Amino acid sequence: MFQLLPGHIQPPGHRTRKSRLVTKDGHCNIEFGNIEYSNHFAFVVDFWTTFVEIRWRFVLVLFVAAFTGSWFMFSLLWYWIAKSNGDLTAQNQTEEHVRCIDNVNGLTTAFLYSLETQTTIGYGGRALTGHCAGTVALIIIQSLVGVFINCFMCGIILAKISLPKKRAKTVTFSNTAVICLKKGSLCLLIRVANLRKTLLIGSQIYGKLLRTTTTPDGETIILDQVDVDFMVDAGKDNLFFVCPLTLYHVINRSSPFYELSADTLPLQDFELVVFLDGTAESTSSSCQVRTSYIPQEIQWGYSFLPIISRTKTGKYRVDFSNFSKSVRVTTPHCVHCFETDVDHRMPNKENHINQLKLGIDNLGFQVINIPEPVDVTKM
After folding, report:
1. What span, in angstroms and rounded, lies between the C-alpha atoms of 247 and 289?
2. Each residue's pLDDT tens digit in the chain (379 positions)?
3. Distance between CA atoms of residues 207 and 225, nearest Å
4. Cβ proximity of 251 and 178 under 8 Å
5. 3-state DSSP call for residue 105?
6. Of 86, 133, 127, 96, whose CA–CA distance to 109 is shortest?
7. Torsion (CA) 337, 339, 342, 344 in degrees, nearest 10
8. Residue 7 CB: number of other CB atoms within 10 A?
9. Helices (DSSP H) in the chain: which residue ranges?
């Protein structure tokens, strides 16, 4: 019972599910509400992770505020020392007066001196005279604070640049999944490609089917998770991810897709989330790539177009223009139809094998009686 299935047209009044837990680019569409105030304090305690995960716009604001704020705070201290020693322009100074800081006679010059000190510019116009002991202690403290701010901000920027999820941007999945026959079984197929020439070491791929279920006790479970195994011809662990791979899930009796058919698939309400874990070869950092497929993004009766070819020079070429393209193929209408058709063919196949073992009657063969031989030997 194989047939070429036409494209699916959604019935009138059927709305495409627009909300999904995981977007196509891997972001989780979830919102936390009614969090207690004490739990917010935990984000402050784990300040490093908080700063690494915030958006770049806030990192830039923090960068500017950290440096300009420290310059201004220390300029107030330098201004206070200059005012206490009588170094300001508005203060009456005698000829024997010795300044604590040369050429610091107001808040503006104090700010410039603070900036020059912390950034180690040292133009030479403003400098300590060594007359005041407090200035020596203050310049040591400001130098240490400046080094700490430099290290902290550089660490945040480098950590954000080298986040493993940035490596995940160069791993892509096909826009749709397809269901067709593969090696005598009905399978769900997806494609995944590594856009960089550097490999992902120890790659593993697996899936989770998210759907709303009701238990026998009447409890409704939202986002109930069911494991979906994916594999390639060489297995499902430690993928050789040098070229795009076509991953498949066999739809059998243990599969959550066993009860689906070409007609009921577009009417379902579930989300298939696919995960790819691996270690970047160049940075040795672990990363995870995610995407999801809803029923309207799964094509029943289609197969992916080939994308790998060999050039005249002997190199293998990947044509990404056909990466997500598919073509209609002959596919059973449902898993039950496929199994029923196989069961009907199995007895005929067994009879044929038994006939080969027992032999076939030859109608042209005649049976005749052969007389016993006479012993003519004489002694």
Report:
1. 15
2. 455 544 443 443 344 445 788 888 888 888 777 776 656 677 777 888 888 888 899 999 999 999 999 999 999 999 999 888 888 877 766 677 788 888 888 899 999 999 999 988 877 788 888 888 888 999 999 999 999 999 999 999 988 887 777 777 888 899 999 999 988 889 999 999 888 888 888 888 899 999 888 888 888 888 889 999 998 866 666 677 788 888 999 998 899 999 888 899 988 889 999 998 888 887 788 888 899 999 999 999 999 998 888 888 888 888 888 899 999 998 888 887 777 766 556 555 445 445 444 444 444 444 445 455 555 444 3
3. 10
4. no
5. coil
6. 127
7. -70
8. 9
9. 37-45, 47-53, 56-85, 107-118, 133-161, 164-167, 335-358
Distance CA 258, CA 226 (A): 13
Tokens of 192: 């995944």
- For residue 107, give every residue at least 6 positions away whose Cβ sits within 8 Å of its Cβ, in sequence order, or none: 75, 76, 79
Torsion of Cα atoms, 132 then 134 then 139 then 144, to 10° = 160
Residue (of 374, 300, 285) closest to 337 by Cα position: 300
Beta strands 298-300 and 177-182: pairing type?
parallel
Token match 């990363």: residue? 287
Strand positions, DSSP E, 183-219: 185-194, 200-214
* Residue 122 φ/ψ, nearest 5 degrees: 65, 65
**pTM of structure:** 0.68
Please report, as a single letter, which amino acid is at residue 157. I
